[in-house]
Fold:
Amino acid sequence: MNRRVSSIFAWHLVLAMGAAIAASPVLAAEFGPVKQMEVDANKAALGKRLFFDPRLSGDAAISCSTCHIPAKGFSDGLALSKAYPGSDGFRNTPTLINAARKAAWFHDGRIGTNLNDVTRESITETYSMNMDMRLMQERVKQDPVYVKMFKKAGYGEPSNGSIRKAIPEYLKTLTSRGAPFDAGKMSDAAQRGFDLFKGKAGCAQCHSGSRFTDDAPHNTGVPENPDIWSDPKRHLTYVAFGMFMGIENYMNIRRDVGAHIRTHKADGSDIGKFMTPTLRELTYTAPYMHNGTIKTLEDVVAFYNRGGGSDGNKDPRIKPLGLSKEERANLTAFLKSLSGTPLTGPEHVWKEKINVNYAVIEDWLEQKN
Ligand code: HEC
Ligand code: HEC
Structure:
């Protein structure tokens, strides 16, 4: 409960920051490369192994990397994500590249504190990895490789608290690099697209800074993904989520309320707002939007050119743009120039086999630590 309350406060801070950014003129200088973050190498190496280890899920069937796949920019190529065996997801899996720099996480921005909390939610939610933190700790302690790695990382004995620190440390290593945009190697078409992006097309009003996001939620009128309501496994997951999150009328509602989960505005004007996503690494992360309803970047540009979707609460800055065919192609070329070298080498991916067999722990709740 405390976590929810404290993240509500953090959320207001995020909103205030978003407003401050929106009010300032967008300067070209804001669009530099994403800076590498300082990381502790031993802690990050441990976090990397944990990220690829299915023993962190309740039935040892899925790991973080089941959904966040390195070759797909740490997303999964699906419109809507998978979920814990027996259920199915209702949101598109976002990239984790540069995610350590975000001000609020998940498509609705419901966690505005830190990656430790995001990691906890990812591990424990029933529809995600459905794991009990105490059981996870006991399983990790069984593995001599981990015992060594935790020691080397300065954590002492494996504990659930240090697992939630080590994974974020690894996530900090996932930083974009090598994009033609950063290297000054954009094609002429992409360069003209960048001018449109900052000018006539108005994209930079929300997609600003080195990650191309203001870290704030907006309503662009993206239509619902009907699969969430027609597929019982997805629908049940959404109902469970709605119940935990306090969505009014969660049994009957047939839409993803988005940032309303955090702000709960009585007039519902926050319904259908989603966090502005980064525009980096898009060539690896199709399909797009919080529910994967737009398949290609060409289609995204066509969507904006039409003036977005239809929604009573749509942001007034989303309006028909009247871009010519050539201008649309230039804008798409620009978006493609923001993707860099894939993070698929051993520096970012745990390549050694992880033996997922473990001895069943009797009375794990009674383990003394
Ligand atoms: C079953 C698929 C699945 C698994 C397993 C999974 N994730 Fe995710 N992850 C998602 C989806 C889907 C979202 C977006 C959820 C939302 O918006 O409600 C997400 C969101 C995130 C985010 C927020 C990104 C952003 O841009 O706001 C982070 C960070 C993250 N996951 C890390 C992890 C870590 C660490 C693990 C392992 C402990 C993990 N995930 C396991 C599917 C998964
Ligand atoms: C009013 C703020 C705003 C403006 C202006 C805006 N966007 Fe967006 N953009 C968003 C939000 C919010 C989303 C996420 C919507 C969702 O998930 O439902 C988004 C999503 C996207 C995505 C999908 C990314 C992904 O990973 O799913 C792309 C690409 C994109 N925008 C490009 C553009 C371009 C190009 C323009 C200019 C023509 C533009 N945006 C203008 C706020 C904005």
